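tl;dr need the bound structure. longer version: we got a ligand (2'-deoxyguanosine-5'-monophosphate) that a collaborator sent over and nobodys looked at where it sits. i said id run it. heres the input, straight from their email, havent touched it
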Amino acid sequence: MSEDLFEKIIDREIPADIVFENDELLAFRDINPQAPVHVLIIPKRKIRTLNDLDEDDAGLVGRMVLAAKEIAASEGIAEDGYRLNLNCNERAGQSVWHIHLHLLGGRKMDWPPG
Ligand code: DGP
């Protein structure tokens, strides 16, 4: 039995609208989109929070960003612009304990964020 919600998506125990997958990563549309394009890019290996990353994960995190770049292009938002967001722990809004990179685009983004 999968431990967290995103592991259940990786294991196909719950459905998701998957837009990208390889051996290391999975990307799927957020169930509660905050923009016309809102995709979550996750590692298949469980890492609870950004605080659990170490030097050996540098390549993984880089490939998450590169996957987001490719998805932004395929979603047609690369030229207009998009935002990548990583939330760490409750105060920053993290609610699922498996790191995930938010890709948001398709509308104007406010800065600074609320
Ligand atoms: P965060 O708040 O940064 O931990 O983001 C978690 C995101 O996960 C949030 O935007 C909503 C999304 N989410 C939660 N449950 C599900 C689900 O079952 N399916 C999908 N596709 N997204 C989910």
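gonna send this back to them w/ a short note. Residues 84 and 95 are 17 Å apart (CA to CA).
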